[in-house]
Amino acid sequence: MKKYAWIFVILTFLSCTALSKNNSICESGIDDICSVVELASLAEQGDVNAQFNLGSMYKIKRDDIKAVKWFRKSAEQGLAIAQLNIATMYFLGKGVEQDVAESLKWFRKSANQGDLKAQTMMGAFYEKGKFLKQNYTEAMKWYRKAAEQGNAKAQYHIGNIFFHALGVKQNFSEAIEWYKKAAKQGYAEAQFNLAHMYSKGKGISQNYTESLKWYRKASEQGMGAAQYNIGIMYYVLQRTRS
User: Fold this and answer.
1) Residue 3 domain boundaries
2) Has this prediction a pTM greater than 0.85?
3) Structurally, how many domains does the chain consist of?
């Protein structure tokens, strides 16, 4: 599975522990108001949010089989976040036999309902050509849907598509705009790429001050390459001044 390591990086943001806030009885959170028994009773009665919340509780307790059971019930009623979670469980083989085709079905259902994480995943599948036929037009479509909702990861990937000319004409200025959107939200990889473009003057006026600013922001998040580039920049600047 090493060749699919990129997928597992993306999946780190697909948390199954967030509880739905839409349950009529559990508006303040299940820890404050609802007992597990009450939540289970609501779930058994078909309450879509209670079903998802119960699945989330089982996921936290590492009971993946029961988590899948309740995520599925909620997903089948059309709750997008439950569809995202059941897709993730199928993809990773958690609580159910691994089934990529089934996973993709649920990712698409969730994405079609506007879940930005599912949309980003669909973009990644199409961009990388893993599990789905590579299609940069489809990748851009899904990334844009998530990016327009403010998803930094999707914004970063759009920047990459323009930078590397993946199915579009290379456009450094457009890449910078998308990197900026993601960088301002604290996305380290976008901060690094933006710093690089300021350093090289690609699509923007060369500006070492801005370059260092963004390298520092990426460095503060532990990005080793940014720390290394800061050192190189200080070394070069010192030599040019001496």
Assistant:
1) 1-120
2) no
3) 1
